[in-house]
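Minutes, project check-in
Item: structure for the 290-residue chain
Input as provided by the requester:
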Amino acid sequence: MAIDKIILGTVQLGIEYGINNKQGRPSDFEGVGILRDAYLKGVRYIDTAEGYGKSHEVIGLYHRQHPNEKFQVITKFSLANLAKYSSFDWAFKNTLEILQVDSLAGYMFHDFADYVHNPEIRESMIVLRGLGKIQQLGVSVYTNDEAELVLDDPNINFIQIPFNLLDNFTKRGHVIEKARKAGKEVHTRSIFLQGLFYMKDVPIKLSALQPYLDQLRHIAAEEKVTLQDMALSFAVFHPCIAKILIGVESSVQLVSNLNSIKKGELAERLIDRINAIRVQEEELLNPVNW
């Protein structure tokens, strides 16, 4: 089922996030409510990070209140977080304590450079996986070149990579298919490009993307689908993608997104039209450059 592929992103529960975020960070009470609604709707995986403000604490609060309805947690390692502790093992134990879980479904390097330059931490993660404290090891990447290097590592189980209507299969297809052949899971993020798809007037620094956004709206109108339905289905039903990360600012957004998924797959001709879009200003597809 499509719901099995959904990972609820929780960066919005810890910090104000997203170029189109008009509501700010939900209160801790609201954050716990979003998590509760997600669980009741069938979502079982959540994504967070040591660098996402209060996100870990909100998740831990939810788990204390609902100890029999815990999520499979995927979080991301941060060197900055490690600096606060005497050792990696101590930092990891503290992470589990804050999240109120006994183990992690996934532990990722948040930064590709940290993955490359810290082999001793990779080894510590491998040991923890052997002890059952981590189920899968992953790396968050931005570029195809980064992904290619990670896929050659037999100790990495999955990558998390951007994928959306503009950052589409034409750009990402080669590396996604290579991941599948290598036995790696592909988790995708930036489905809505931080909400940029919904902005009628984009910021001046991103104005070069406006024609592509207009093209997407034109395609959606011609195909009689909403931009939200198109963005979600495009990723969720791709056979090479194992998990889809979606972030929400409210339970209303959560329910709306899950309802979009229920509408099913896109027509093949529509997928072809989306993949025919080739953004020339590729650097603008990376929010790091915003």
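Outcome recorded: The mean pLDDT is 94.
No further action items on this chain.
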